[in-house]
Amino acid sequence: MIKNVLKESEDSLKKAVLFLKNEKLVAIKTETVYGLACESSSKTAIQKVYGLKQRPLFNPLIIHVDSIDLAEKISIINNDSREIMKEFWPGPVTLILNRRKNNLVHDFAVSGLDTIAIRIPSSKFVLKLINKLNKPIAAPSANESGYISATDADHVVDSFGEKVDLIIDSGRTEHGVESTILDMTTNPYEIKRLGVIDYKTIRKKLGKKVKNLNFNYKKILRPNSPGQMMKHYAPKTPLKLNIDKPNSDDAFLDFGNKKVISHQPTLNLSESSNLKEAAFNLFYFLRKLDKCSKQRIVVAPIPNKGIGKTINERLKRAAL
Ligand code: TXA
Ligand code: MG
What we know:
- By secondary structure, this protein is of the alpha/beta class.
- The protein has nine helices and 16 strands.
- It has two domains: about 5-210, DHBP synthase (Alpha-Beta Complex); about 240-320, Rossmann fold.
- Helix content is about 30%, strand content about 20%.
- α7 (about 200-205) links the parallel β11 and β12.
- Magnesium ion binds near residues 140, 141 and 149.
C-alpha cells in the first residue's frame, strides 16, 4: 500500500498547501486530467516537475489560478480574453496570453517565453489550494512525458509512485481529456490544442475568425507550443486506428453498439455512441489495455465531430 495518497479533506488540503510552500510536488485532480502541481515561483519545485515527467525543458507548463485577478497579475488581458474567461472559467479552456513578468511565475516554468498559458480549473479542492497558497500553481498533466495522461489517481501512482510527495485521490476526472488551448496573442486568435470545448463554441463566443488547429502532424515546424508537435498520449503497445475486426492477439478499443464482439480483451468507449462518454473513457481504457501486454491495441473508427475530433487527434498522435 502506497503511503503518499490521501483523499480530499481539510487535513489533506492543509498538507497539500504546506507541501507546495515547501517546494514539494502534489498531484491533483482537475476536471480534465490529473496535474502534477508545484508552486510556479519555485525553481527547485519546477525542476522536480520537469525531472519527474522527463519533460523537455523547452516545453512550458500551464499555470493554474483561482481568479481573473490573479491571472491579471501574471498576464495582459484584452477584452476578448476577458469575455472568454467569463464564459468558460472555471473550466477546460487554457488561454495563451502575453506574460507580465514578476516573481509569481519563475521564467523556468514558462521556458523563458514572453507568453503564458493560464486557466482556472473547476475543482473546488484545487481552487481552495490556490487560494490558501495565495499564488499560482504550475501543473502539467501528471504522466511521463509522451505517455497517456492520468485520469485517475491510480494512474499517477502507476506513473510516479512515491516519487510524488503527495497524491490527492479525488476519483476519476469528469472530462477525461485535456483543456482546449486558445492562443490570444496571435492575429487571428488560434486554437493550439483541441480539447473539451470545441472550436465552433469558441468562435461563436468571440464572434470573429479563429484559426483552428492545423492537422499536419508530420510537418515539424518551430512551434510556440512545442508539446503540440510530438508523438504524445502513446501507450507502450503499438496502436492501430480505424480497425473493426481485431486479430486474436490484439486488445480492442471499440466504440458504439454495432455488433456483438466476443473478442477478449475488448473495452467499449461508449456502447450508446456518446462521444462525451468516449472522451471520459479514452485514456482510462487505453491505460487498461496497455497493461494487457498484447501485440497491438486496435481502435474502432470514432465519428469526427464535436469532442470526437479531440479523441481522434489524441489517437492519431498516439499512433504516430
Ligand atoms: O487540461 C489541462 O490543460 C491539463 C490540466 C492538468 O490542467 N494540463 C495539461 O498540461 O494538459 P500539459 O503540460 O500536459 O499541456 C500543456 C500544453 C503543452 O503542450 C505546452 O506546450 C502548452 O500547453 N503551453 C504551455 N505554455 C505555453 C505557451 N506559453 N505557449 C504555447 N503553448 C504553451
Ligand atoms: Mg500533457
